[in-house]
Task: structure prediction
Amino acid sequence: MSNINTDILDGLIIGRVDPQIYAFSTHTIPNYLKIGDTYRPIEIRLDEWRKYFPNLVKKFSDVAKVDEEIFFRDHAIHSFLESSGKTRLQKGDIDEFLYFSNEFFKDTEVKDVKEAIDDIKKSHLCNDGRYQFYRFEDSRIPVSFTWKREENYKPRPNQQNAIDKFNEAIQKKHTNLLMYAVMRFGKSFTSMCCATEMDAQLVVIVSAKADVKAEWKKTVESHIRFEGYKFLDSNSLQNNRTIITDTLKENRVALFLTLQDLQGDEIKTKHKDLFNNNIDLLLIDETHFGVRGEEYGKVLNDIGITNNDERKKELEQIDDDLVKLDETIKILKSRIRIHLSGTPYRILMGSEFTKDNIISFCQFTDIVDEQEKWNDENLNKDDVKEWDNPYYGFPQMVRFAFNPNESSIKKMEELKKNGITYAFSALFKPQSISKDSKLHKHQKFEHEQEILDLLKVI
Result:
């Protein structure tokens, strides 16, 4: 029986195979390593690749499991490699007639893949949420990573002040609010505290930056004050089209979405359940990254673009994420909105927000002052330690100042005489705010020499 040729059966009968990671190299694309995954025997998958790369050499294979219930995908390894400085193959790097795959990584070796797998397994053991994992019982649905709810710290004084002002604002029927606070203030925590103050059942967080989702998820799921809130995202809506309605029957919802996900001429199917429910609190995170078109028009006017046709042209050509913010946000009907920003752009400090609308205006110096004030009032007490300070751990700030050079001062005075209020900002006006592939005007300053002189002074 051992002499029976089973090649035909090997190609037809495929048993249950654990998901596996594989890697191969090919002289066709030298100095690159291809990393992929498969649910079938590796040799069958490699034979499929040999149609495009006959000379491929298998370099590595391993089971893609962390235990008997959970496995990971090749995306996790790709993520580790990119974070380690490895670069993917680009179409321009190879001849057009060759088959292209962006799963080739330059100057990558087997040891790099092994390091990635070790880090993925460590991440799962530590439950830190850095990678996506999947269950065998339903391999199409990702495992939902949830933080352990055990944090129970109180709001710091400056955070409590924002919460108090929030309560005052909504009592006065103000519905469009601004929370300006620098990095490390804790805007996500303070905003969720505001949600509990108004007993918001459905909270929607919208951001132009997808990478802030992890911080929001950790905030919502880890603190005892937010018990009862279930964190959802775009994937949640994709997997269950009625998950918001279903969750609200017994819990509250904190839903994170990106502007890019929401944008479009029509409401996406996965978003219909959102629009069928009433949003109690809409949190617009990093709002300065999505400049409103109407407000941006004012800025264009400030920097000297007064011709309507020219302004229209500039607005049409600027990046879509900036122009469409108002349009996207307006389709979300909510009781209360809070704009969150760590950068005091003048468009936020203009007519859009009155004094009563601004629930926080916290700069880094405010935090440092509070830190020093607490130390002065408490450190002389025998039973008080330095780390009891609610602001303990905030870095010290070193300030620098300089006098502008003569040519810059002269140019700014000239701009002021021409009616431009924000002369210093206008000094840095680019030749164009839209991409110019030929002349590259978007990469050049209007007043280049003055800026060069200024940089020499700095």
Confidence is low (pLDDT under 50) at residues 8-16, 289-308, 310-323.
